[in-house]
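Bench log. Compound arrived from synthesis this morning; before running ITC I wanted a structural hypothesis for how phosphoribosyl ATP sits in the protein. Inputs:
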Amino acid sequence: MLRIAVQSKGRLNEDTMCLLAESGIKLSPSKRTLLVPSTTFPLEILFLRDDDIPQSVANGTADVGIVGENEYVEKHQGSEIVKRLGFGKCRLSLAIPKDEEYNNLNWFAGKKIATSYPEILADFLKKNGVKADIHVITGSVEIAPGIGLADAIFDIVSSGSTLVSNRLKEVEVVMKSEAIMIAHPSLPKEKKEILAELLFRIDSVLYADGKKYIMLNAPNEKLNEIVDILPGVKSPTIIPLSKEGWSSLHSVIEEKRFWEVIGKLKSCGAQGILVLPIEKMIL
Ligand code: PRT
Ligand code: ZN
């Protein structure tokens, strides 16, 4: 049995639970408690605050965990990254009052910076030879300059609207972050095997994300041109139709290229174009 620590509530919880569900991991219907076993996979889920996940994996309370990279880097304690998961994307940035003139990092010399990420900030300032006063606060860091508690902040930014509504501007991006899966560095063989199966399932879910299955009919003489427009997983499947001189072509496309590709296909004479969602892809 493998134990995975996930955020109990908050920004990463929904995407994490969705990813596990799409990987075929159903939870026991018992009332949600701290530790819930799966009924379909040798996994139990430990619900924690995100701050506690890196340490719980490092000390072996959990075998693996899903957490924001920012928390992992801040609390780095000997676990290792095994997969980047692509959700919970954000950045850790330095921000200052919007009317301040800013040219470079020297602005921060001797200033007071409020943050919940003192380790990452101290490391960044040291690397850049800037001496500033780090003031640790948890929660609502963005109000610190407005109430005179600090000159600047170092905090998570996503859309940037929290900064704008607090009359701040982002001046330096220090690190980019996304949800990651971390693992204890020395798992026993049995747990490593379960983790390998879990990662295989997660890969097939993540790979299918943003991709669509496309089917179309086209005259045979246009097939080469159409194949060039549609770079499939390996090469598209071509099936002859009962209609003389026509074939059906099946492939996979990136959703973001969809409209660009459809226009080109139509001008090549493609007909009966069908686009379908893909749940999982095993390469
Ligand atoms: O209760 P627990 O301790 O588990 O949760 P938490 O409150 O500490 O964390 P939570 O749920 O807010 O965030 C969990 C993780 O989500 C973070 O560690 C990041 O990895 C990731 N993440 C992604 C974010 C954001 N986007 C984000 N926008 N975490 C926080 N924010 C905050 C940001 O600090 C800002 O104050 O959301 C606010 C809005 O951001 P804007 O820029 O979109 O306005
Ligand atoms: Zn937290």
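What the model suggests: The mean pLDDT is 94. Residues 90-176 form a domain with the D-Maltodextrin-Binding Protein; domain 2 fold (CATH 3.40.190.10).
ITC booked for Thursday regardless.
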